[in-house]
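Protein Entry — a single chain follows
Fields — amino acid sequence, structure tokens
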Amino acid sequence: MATETPNNVENVQDAAAVQALLEMDGNLAIVSMNNPPYNLIGLELLVSVMDAIQTAVDNGARAVLLNSSLKNFSGGADVSLFASAFDRLDAQASTTDKNEKTQQKPAKKPKENTFNVTKFLDFMQNTPIPIVASVRGACLGGGLEIALACDAIIAAKSARIGSVESTIGVAPIMGGVQRLVQRIGIVRAKEFAMLGRRHDADTLESMGVINLAVADHELADVALNYAQQLANGPTVAFLAIKELANITVNDGIAAADQAMQKITAPIFKSKDAREGIKLLQTTGPGSAKYKGC
């Protein structure tokens, strides 16, 4: 089957105009990457994913399931990304050499597209709702880096996943090394990126790279149920959890401790917290139906 999304969803985009398709299933946004044939990662796909997620947030989504409408999650980065990097370096070197020979002042740099992969990583980190990646087929290079930018990764057991950039003489340029260090430590992360091997999902679950490896035929249902559980959970509390986790990673535990009271304050003003605590005393934990506010 070509897509993991269920039939009872609302399509809120023109499929011909974008490389990431957005559908809403209640509180859950399903974003499907759609850049045939292999979902190669270029700036247009990254921007399209960001646009779809932002539209989902603006329309009240409380979680995002990011998957692929194709056979593979992603075959990696479009080589045009690397080619453009070489072109910029060559142009800068040529300008510098010319200026040195003619003893001229350096020419002003031409205006470039201000989008870069850091903006994508910042966007994913700061999106106020959980993002779950559902991975099948190949998930290589930049495809893995997109998955690592999500809050959770669920993969089919047959998926082949790897940081393979070193096999073509380059390194991950979309945050892969850093996020692997977060998950599996510096020694394993360096090995993972330097050797450039493809791994099965069971191995990566045991290493801690992904959250869950499931049978291929169960991926769609398991990933959907996982994401729906988040979409129906206490959204305000989830935002606080994301923010505290991000501060801990970026600035350390002490910084997170200092920020904790301010970050968690909105939880105790939320209807969800009041309802959850109220029902804890009557019907027990887990009985509340959260509204996301």
Summary: DSSP finds eleven helices and ten strands in the chain. The mean pLDDT is 88.
